[in-house]
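User: I'm preparing a small set of examples for a lab meeting where we compare how different chains pack in three dimensions. I only have the primary sequence for this one, and I'd like the structure in token form so I can line it up with the others. Please keep the answer compact; I'll paste it straight into my notes.
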Amino acid sequence: MLLTVLGCSGSFPGPNAPASGYLLAADDFLLGIELGNGAFAAMQAVVDPFDLDALMFSHLHADHCSDFSGLSVLRRYHPSPPYDPRVNKLDVYAPSEAPTRFIAAYATDEADRAVTDLSDVYQFRALRPGKVHIGPFEVLVAPAAHPCESFSFRISHGGRSLAYTGDTAMCDALVEVVDGADVLLSEASWTHSPNHPPNLHLSGHEAGVLATGAGVERVLVTHIPPWTDKDAVIAEVRAAYDGEVVLVEQGAKYDI
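Assistant: Understood. Below is the structure token output for the 256-residue chain.
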């Protein structure tokens, strides 16, 4: 599996730094994961968006999904697409309210919302805890501890697995879904403190503890907000985990 980072800024885009967006490729299948602010522009620099075979969202906060509207314009109005998007609809795996959330973001006003139906170019598939097969990938879906319907994933293919925390605090479901993964793509939005709001994000320390407990061979640290000291977060991860720690970068590619 090959992971490409389209964007990795946490909570909102930073200067020339898109928010969350990733591509995971294997066996000529291209899975998009998240499409936050700026990620669609970054995607067009590396692939044709029409090459996407499926798209998956951990949750529906703007920094993870706001560029879906741009993709929708492309799929609905491109004058010469490589195929008919209304016949070859894109599978979108997302929380249950994704269709109404994306329509509200796309439409201009109440009248437009009343007539907009994005199922003309998408096949929406509601995520639920358990296993789902997306192309060549087996995806284990687990509920995340975040203030909306949210999920964490373990994505497996060819005897390898990538665990992706999404946005979440520490919880039993997260520990279970990460356990035994080869590589962990973990958010770490702040340094550790008992004063942080509950059920929101991981600290660098918690990401390291999670990686150690799961026995992963490498941690890819992502989703650090522009206002957070990246060096301090990475130091916390390394203090709690003895394996390889990588601060992901926009545009970088990682073999899983």
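A couple of notes for your slides: The mean pLDDT is 98. Residues 78 and 85 are 10 Å apart (CA to CA).

User: Perfect, thanks.
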